[in-house]
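Schema walkthrough. Field components (list of strings):
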Amino acid sequence: MSETKTLTLARAINEGLRRSLENDPKVLLMGEDIGALGGVFRVTDGLQKDFGEDRVVDTPLAESGILGTAIGLALRGYRPVCEIQFDGFIFPAYDQITTQLAKMGYRSGGKLQVPVVIRVPYGGGIGAVEHHSESPEALFAHTAGLRVVSPSTPQDAFTMIQEAIASPDPVLFFEPKGRYWEKGPVAASGRGEGSTVLDRAQVVRPGTDLTLVAYGPTVATALRVAAAAEQEGRSIEVVDLRSISPLDTATVVESVRRTGRCVVVHEAPTYLGSGAEVAARVTEECFYSLEAPVLRVGGFHTPYPVAKIEHDYLPSLDRVLDAVDRAFAF
Amino acid sequence: MTHHDAADGVSTPPDLPDVAGGPDDAPLLQLVTPAGARVTTPETDAYRERVAHLDAAALRGLYRDMVLTRRFDDEATSLQRQGELGLFAQSKGQEAAQIGSGRALAPQDYVFPSYREHGVSHVRGIDPTARLRLFRGVDHGGWDPTEHNVHLYTLVIGSHALHATGYAMGVQRDGLVGSGDPGRDTAVVTYFGDGATSQGDVNEALVFAAVNNAPVVFFCQNNQWAISEPTTKQSRVPLYRRGGGFGIPSVRVDGNDVLACYAVTAEALERARTGGGPTFVEAFTYRMGAHTTSDDPTKYRSRAQEEYWRRRDPIDRLENLLRAEGAWDDAFAADVAAEADALGERLRDEVRALAAPDPSTMFDHVYATPNAVVEREKAWFADYQQSFEEPAAEVAR
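Field assembly_structure (string):
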């Protein structure tokens, strides 16, 4: 890939995977239907044709098996990138991820490294059936030893997937499946040619009156909220976390100290979610700068609802604007 | 030793008093009877060839390995009773399965153990004190896996069967299968118990290994009991038959017969290294001790059963063989006993000397890369600890 192209987010990940496969012979992709089909979302489209069945591996339909064998391959010096077909299917592999993958470096006193990347299409809004629209990122962010990230733009997706693969630590790479088809510019200057973005939050829209913190699928929502609020004369800053673990607290705190208000937005249930961590950190560190309590907008403490009513579950433009209003009302 | 031990090697095991596993008509490969006689049937020809090179000195070496492994068990159990270890899981009774299979390995082979593979660890040269760091609570690992080609003990039952399979898939990709160079071609072995065969991970490992023709040996030590649950709670068929459904060659071996265990493992390793794919081995044996030092086997198994297996003690069997073949001498036995005593003494000294690590090390190696969350907490903890220290000047006053 050369110069700048306009790509969908899915295609940007594909290009990033291609680069990693080209640059490092130890990188291999594993998952269900990722070969000839190119994955159910076509994120790995064409890669098996170009890199062969030993590097783009169609696996048995067994998620624990995918993760467990990826750990073994990583111990042998490979860099496996596992695709979990849908968010709700990650749980059969939960044991391998949390009891084995997360702890192996620690357990060995740093003598072992398990550079496994787990790609997870996550989140809702595509009218899917049960187990196909979940946001389990907090479950993994709560486990020490794992890095948990989520890109929100094609450019970040392209860069971050390469950085995730290059990371010596295991990374859960949550892909906002509802944004797979959104297009954006992607500059070829990816890993090694620019600065590291994998665990750096980014101010994606500057503002002075309130900080909206989002990641993955809700960054676009936050930007729409900021545009709408501008009509009412409110200047809203939007911070894209990119990384949920570790959290780039410094960027968020710096922003909230300036704006004095903070609303956190994510699709996952708010109860004990990653927004709670952001809110607690901001409260601890910005207490004397805050004009209002830190508010959260996210999913409810219910299983993901049926598709016909998911728009009421997801943090919509109106629900976020309502929270913004409440923050200004204090 | 007993009248119902059939002379033929591939035999029906005699009536085992209330032995777990239910009706058992599975053939059981045996090369040495409990009385110490060689089994020489046409069915065992191929396996006897695998151990033909083991001369009297080599057999005495196996005996030494087994005695030292048992002493290690006994000392560690005592240390646990004295409060020096938080927990210990014995390998007592399984020495033949572990030493026989372990001695069949080549240096380049890689082992994924469960958590009672002390005999295998011994064979691979892992320091005995290092093996107890985990159980003392000063370390989650204990040794450098890459130094011994032995992965760390894995406590979540069966998880490591998948790691072994993935590692074997890596070996395959490295071109170290079927190259024709026995010094380079590599096999992977994973050890697990009868209870683990019920786990999804072990079954998924069998699937992945079979479809990838991975160079991995699944070495199941059926020691009859998964804590208090007999094998009948895990399976309706003899465990070795599980392999067949996955398309994996499988064999059941007398796990208390060190030569038979050596032979079947050597065969399985050769199959793996030469590109023949995985093998499932069921070593039919017995856990003479408790599951761990927290367990009380008198609550769930009979003394008759324990007595039956005590008569089939793998160490006694090898002694009987050595005596029968004129390879035993009392000076050798005295040497081994002295070496075991020295091991015991060394363990008692060294384990007690294993001090708790500095608390701040809990923050080390959580990640291989700098991590903002961990670094913050480590810094906070350092300040917190510092806050308890009196200024030097005040202490002086």
